Structures are given as C-alpha cells and as structure tokens.
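Batch manifest, entry 17 of 40.
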Amino acid sequence: MNRFLTVVMVFTILTSSSQADDTSKLAALFASADTHDAVTIPPGDYEIDGSKPIQLASSTTVWAYGARFHLPKSLGDRARVVLFLGENVSDFHWFGGHFAGHVFDNTKADNSWEPNVNSRPILITTTKGGVTENLTFRDVTSNGVAGAVITVLGAEKKGSERDVETYARNVTVENCTLERSGKFMWDYGYLWQITVWPEEYNDDERKMAAKYFRNDLIRESIRMLANDDRVYFDNSKLLPVSTKREGADADRGHDSICFYNDQLPRNIKRGKQYFVVESKPSYIRIAEQPLGAPIRFESDGGKSVNLIFNLFQAHLALYAPAGSGPGKGALDLVGCENVIVRGCRLSALGDTMHIQKCKTITFANNQITGSRMGAFFLAEFCKNATITGNTVDGTNGSRVISVEKSCQDVTMIGNTFRGGGRGSWINQPRNFVLADNIFENNTTKCETDPKRGRRSFVTGDYEHYAELYFTTFESNGKYGNIAIRGNIFTSGSKATEAITFASGGDNIIVKDNIFRGPVTTIAEPVGCINVIIEDNMVTRASSDSGRLK
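Output type: structure tokens
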C-alpha cells in the first residue's frame, strides 16, 4: 500500500442520552492501523470512560481536528485512566483533538472528581531494548485533564535513579494548548496549614482539609501542665524517639511533631516542630532538637490540644494526593532523546510540564500561563538542554524554575519568569548558563498572607526563599561551571536574598546583571571556590542605584 495514502474512516456517533461510551467505535478506527497509514476521527463529541485503553500502533497518522473527547463527569476514587495507549511505537503522528475532563480544583466547593483521579489521554511507553521513535504531537488541546495529556516514556534502568535503559527518540510537541491539565497537587504544607491555623480560612477550606488531610497523623486530647516536662495522651502506639539526622535529612520532619487546636504553654509555639526524646504509653517528652534537653512547660495547655506527628508526611509529602499515580505536568517526557517542545501554551493545577532523564532538549517559544505547583520543570539527570524564548507565569505556584538533580549542559537564554512562589531552584548542575532572562517577584510563598504564603513546619513562621538558589542533593555534592550574565532580577518583598549558593560550587561567575526591588543582595558563597561576582547593577527600592561587586 502507498505509504502516504490516507484512508478516512467515518462512523456515526449516536446522540441519544443512552450512549454512554464511544470507546469501541474509536477502537474500531485504530484497529485498522496495522494496514492503513492514517486514521481520521471525524469532528464531533466522543464520550470515553477509560475502562479499556485504545491501542496505538506504529506507522500511523491520526487526524483528530474537530474531535472532542470527554471523560466521565464522575470517576469516584479511580486513580488511573488511560485513553490511548501504545508500546514501542515509531513513526507515529497525532494532529488535533480536544480532551476535556474535570480536574479537582481546591478553590471550588463542588468538584465532581476526587484529587487522586489520574487521567492520561495519550501514553506511549518503551520496553527494554524496544524502539520508540519519530513521534509528533501537534495542535492538541485540552482542559481539565488530571494527568499529562501527552506522555512518552523510555525504559528506565531498574535499580538506578539516574540511568535510562532505552531512550524514546525524536519526540516533538508543537502548537498544543493544554490548559488546567496535569496531575492535581496540593502544594507543600497547604492542608497542614489549614489544619493548624483553621481560623484563617473559610468553612469550605476547613471542610476540604478535614476530608483530605492525613488525619491518621493526628493525636488528640493532649495535656501539657505547668512545671512538668511530659506531654500526656494515649500513646499506646508509641511515637518514635527522634534520632540525630545529618545533611539533606536534617529538616525533613520524619520524626518531628507540632501542636495546635487550643491554648499552648507559653514556651510552645503553634506549628513549630519539636522532637520526641522519650516515648512511653501515656506520655512523651519533647525537645527543641533531637536528643536535646526536655522542655519544661511554663504554663498549662488547653484541654483540646492536638499534635501532628511525622511532619514530613503531613507537610512535604502531602503535595501528592494518595493514589494519584504518575502523570506530572500537561506533558510528561521521561527517558527521551532529541526532544522539541515549541509554540505551546500550558497550565496546570499541579506541575505544568515535566521533562526528566532526557537528553538533547529544545524548549522554545512556549507560554506557561499558570501553575499550582512547579511551573518550568527540567527534572532529574537531563543533558544538553536549550531553554529559550519562553514566558513563564508561576501565578503563586511552587518554584518558577526547577532544574533538578545533576542536569548538565543547560542554557536558559531570553526567557521571562514571573510570579512564582518558591523562587528558582537549580540543584547540583554542571555547565549551566543563565543569560539575558527576566525574573520578577518569584517568592510569593514567603508573603505573610494565609492565601498566598506558606508556613514552614520547622519554625511555624512563613517560609523564606531566595529569588534564585543553588543547592546540592548528595552529601558533599559538587557543582560548577556556572555563568549568570545579563539577567534582570526584580525581587519580591519577602525574598531573603537575590541569589544564594550552597557549598560545593566551583567556577561560578555572576556578572552584568541588574538587581531591582527591596532585596538585591547576593549571599556570600561560603564553601565555593573560583567565584567571580562583579559589574552587577543594583537599583534599590528607594531608587538609589549602585554597583554590586
């Protein structure tokens, strides 16, 4: 058969209310893909319940312009729904089509989907030694999908967090508009904060937190008495005694607790973490630090004090709804080689896009118009990435940029990043260029506002972030060959610094940047070597200007 022959298959969609699912009719179209080079899905509305994925095959071009795919209004607690599924697919191209769902929105009281619903329209996977290559997705649109609309996965190497066994090759995503699409995420500390400071939120928010918080981590009826150092309650299921932790785990909260819900002793702070130093069936003793001296209370606590234990699970880990499964971002590309994402418009009630363990990446001329969590997310162990010409609006999400875990050979040039929540995070990179970008107020989570800001479980106070910060994830981790040139940084009102560097950096240059706003300082790069910070211009809030050496 002529490779470029297009075979158009048309079928009639029933419009009566009794027609609940069109999966079988769509599957009939794709069943012919073994012998035909193109499948055309006629314009119209299609109901798909996701109970059985429609299989995709190699050497297929899908034309779906005008086709609208509707997911069920209710999915209960079903965590994972895949509409179109392919394995080891090559020479595959999908054009057009709109996917509509009902992603959970924490700002609304009448959601029909649960937070853990995970709906992925197009999923292509690769087996060890299999071949996935030459994939194009163009003009796809979506709204309200609770998982990545487009997912392409290479085969990750088992037992290694760094390595890919088999890459999916030559993946292009162009001119797609994927709005409010991606796995729903709570954001760090949100439900914990409502639980601990309920008076700062409305009835609907309190009801939501009561329903979805990890209530199994709460112990009630706590008694704390003046001049006593014991916290009395039914501790028959013994809370663990806190251990001394070092490095990255020092402030993770795995074995720390906090108090709330009633008047506390004068020397105990609501929401702040404390550590268990003795644990008995009817009481515990607590301290400011692991293995520290027990705290003796200066006054009585109220009769309705509660505690939350394992603050890691209650705060840091509660961003992901239980059972929600994979599918970060409106698009999720993992273990791919030769990746192009350009001309797309993306937003999500979670992370907005996710590129992980990929190499040779171009992310250009895209618009990210809103993120409940991370906006731009170049995830772990990516290599050779060019990020240029993008506009990223974090809209009070989490980090406006994450370049995470040993990415190398990354250039970010000529982008605009604004309105993020927890700054821009660069995690142990090698060969990293950040040039001619605009950064504007990316630390909104530091604001002392319960609707916009987030509190830290470590102190009970609002979080603190720099506008741009470099960290390491390995003990004694090293990073280097960093150039930060010609950028414009306008800080938020509550940023701690303009830039900070974790120890372990080598060959760092910060030059010819402009720093504006109330926070313009670069923290001393203690523990770094071969650092040049020069010829940067500062314009302070009072409009006086100077040179930052």
